[in-house]
From TrEMBL, chain A:
It comes from the Eukaryota. The gene is UTP4. PANTHER family: U3 SMALL NUCLEOLAR RNA-ASSOCIATED PROTEIN 4 HOMOLOG. GO terms for biological process: maturation of SSU-rRNA from tricistronic rRNA transcript (SSU-rRNA, 5.8S rRNA, LSU-rRNA). SMART domains: WD40. GO terms for cellular component: 90S preribosome; small-subunit processome; t-UTP complex. This is UTP4 small subunit processome component.
Automatic annotation (TrEMBL), chain B:
It comes from Lynx canadensis. Residues 75-100, 136-156 have a biased composition (Basic and acidic residues). The gene is NOL7. GO terms for molecular function: RNA binding. One of its GO terms (cellular component) is nucleolus. This is Nucleolar protein 7.
Amino acid sequence: MGEFKVHRVRFFNYVPSGIRCVAYNNQSNRLAVSRTDGTVEIYNLSANYFQEKFFPGHESRATEALCWAKGQRLFSGGLNGEIIEYDLQALNIKYAMDAFGGPIWSMAVSPCGSQLLVGCEDGSVKLFQITPDKIQFERNFDRQKRSAVHKMLVDRQYMGVSKRKCIIWGVAFLSDGTVISVDSAGKVQFWDSATGTLVKNHLIANADVQSIAVSDQEDSFVVGTAEGTVFHFQLVSVTSNSSEKQWVRTKPFQHHTHDVRAVAHSPTALISGGTDTHLVIRPLMEKVEVKNYDAALRKITFPHRRLISCSKKRHLLLFQFAHHLELWRLGSTVATGKNGDTLPLSKDADHLLHLKTKGPENIICSCISPCGSWIAYSTTSRFFLYRLNYEHDNISLQRVSKMPAFLRSALQILFSEDSTKLFVASNQGSLHIIRLLEGSFKHLHTFQPQSGTVESMCLLAISPDGNWLAASGTSAGVHVYNIKHLKLHCTVPAYNFPVTALAIAPNTNNLVIAHSDQQVFEYSIPDKQYTEWSRTIQKQGFHYLWLQRDTPITHISFHPKRPMHILLHDAYMFCIIDKSLPLPNDKTLLYNPLPPTNESDVIRRRTAHAFKISKIYKPLLFMDLLDERTLVAVERPLDDIIAQLPPPIKKKKFGT
Amino acid sequence: MVQLRPRASRVPPSAMVDEGQPASEEEEEAEHGLLLGQPSSGAAAEPLEEDDEEGDDEFDDEAPEELTFASAQAEAREEERRVRESVRRDKTLLKEKRKRREELFIEQKKRKLLPDNILEKLTTAEQTNIKKSSGKLKEANLQKENEDCDKGSDSKKAKVQKVQSVGQNKSYLALRLKDQDLRDSRQQAAKAFVQNSLYGPGTNRTTVNKFLSLENKRLPVKKAAAQFLNNAWGTQKKQNAKRFKRRWMVRKMKTSKK
């Protein structure tokens, strides 16, 4: 494998924003998650819980409610009083309609999916008709009339009630007339809507109970508290064969450290998300049919996309935050040591640049060129390109003005290896190629999407010799374009799981694709077919522990001198695949650390297999090969994220 | 009966009348009648005091001058009028100033506004919008609001109304600034409400440091808190100490050189 010096970077101050709303769509098994900075992410729960789409955030958008309507339409309502519909194909906002009622606190969809109800600050509930293009205002209900009309609707509203300022955080309306309310005193209360009386009162927490979600069958619901506990309530018969049922609190789950502000109930799992930025999906054991690894707890903490780009020549790292970019130069050392030593730095890492974006929108994607002279980033409405000049130790920045309008809202930006070309994948499905000249640019070509589809290209990869460009969308296969002749070369057959990482190897021009179900394919571009190695491993299948990994592979890179090596990583491990070594089968040990040197060669040869996995550096946000003997690993310890979150509820423990 | 000399000096004449001889009361009354008959205004009080002082100097031989009162009163009236006049003049000056400034602003606004043709386009587009959407309630609401805006605004040019689309050009959207301010303030209020109810007073919140250190405290081998040192403590004191040290060193260098 070789010896590497590893730059262990921990100065990426990445703090994700807390989760505010969660909405589950039963037909497509997708989860929409909205965060406090306005970002909305779509997770495909059947594709190994992969985040397949996201809508970048906006400072003025404080989403308070999210819901799915018929036909895979996603609506959200926020404190700015607007109802926003998201276009899931083109990955942008379809329109934002003002509800004219002040801040929107809650939203619900009728069971048939064609009507949208919105609860506003001024006390009115407005009914909208969902038409194929837009939503249309239909009626306006006053506070009194509301309860008479709607059953089986889940309404979350804030109502200030009585003396001790008890705030009702959530309300659920069941079809048999029971109303369940959760409030800030830690109570779950059952009311009878016909008589308007309190039926049952459960005091479950010392802090606020902030969210509630009812399952479709209405026999169980889940509540989330501010202490991070999630409780599961079920409708259970009183004795084993009586028909009378009552609500019983069955299971507590403590997977969060901070407030759980959003919960959702899918037919088989409980989903919760809160201020501690984790998304926790807990499958319910009694609902899961096959008890395999799929029934385990899933905790999604780290992003499923790359937020870091690297300039290998100058040892620079570009970190992408929501509203700014940071450029760092890595430190250097002249010391040498043995395996496992920590070498002292002769020159510290340097924070070169802090680039703030103008405007309220979040940065969607960013990139730095391999030579380090160009930085590009994109927001929803603008595209920015900067030229960097290095004199001795100083760095100066110059903005390239008058970027063309079609470049905005880019989903992925990539520079060619020689930094002369810029590739931009826009959310409309087109790919733009820009030639970079000294201080200016020239638009070379645009690859339009196939007619009829608006497939947003999410990932790009360029071959080191600059001839081939690979682009993956969300459902079609990976397209490979010939840059020299500016036309489509071939398309890798579509696979039913989304692509999580793409890379093209130098010299051999093999395209390596990693999917969200942890499958890795290798496709030869000049031959237009899968390579031998890829076919072998598909026939044998990956090791079961490899397939059970939680986090997707986010980056693939190659060694310049060793064509048989593929370096890839996910959040908790990095792996070098050596194609010359035999593949492991299910019986061999997957994670085998280096055997001690006094073991005989025979044993070492027997246990060696192609997957060399190391779990030393975790949680990994980025890992890349800088040159033949250096690696860079960007870690983000979980404690560092927690240290920057808002204050949690005080817990009194005995003995402290 | 004791004959008391009419005591002059500080005592006001009304008191003198009380203490004066009963025999000469009437005379004095007649004399002071004039004085007493005066309305007890400040203007009248002044000359009385002046009278007193004069009386002081000349002691008891001279009668107070009656004429001074009338003239003094006239003087006082004159002063009052002068003050009123000056105030009025100030007011008018201010008014003038304000008027001039307003005109200047209107001029500037006129210059800043969109040219007439675009405004016309806006209003005509709105008219067509209103005609098209006569069936839908939501649009009707909008229409009502727009009409209200129309009636409410002072001039057509001063406020621009919100429109959904401007004919063919979808490149810009005209917004009424007042609406945006109102919306922002409501959004701020809503956010503040949520923030207050979650993190405001009365909620049982603790710092992240304490939260993370809870585990460390209960371990069999107790460890320190997650963030043991508070580097932000006493920053002012530390800065002062640094500055003092620097100055002291400089002084030391100077004296040691000598």
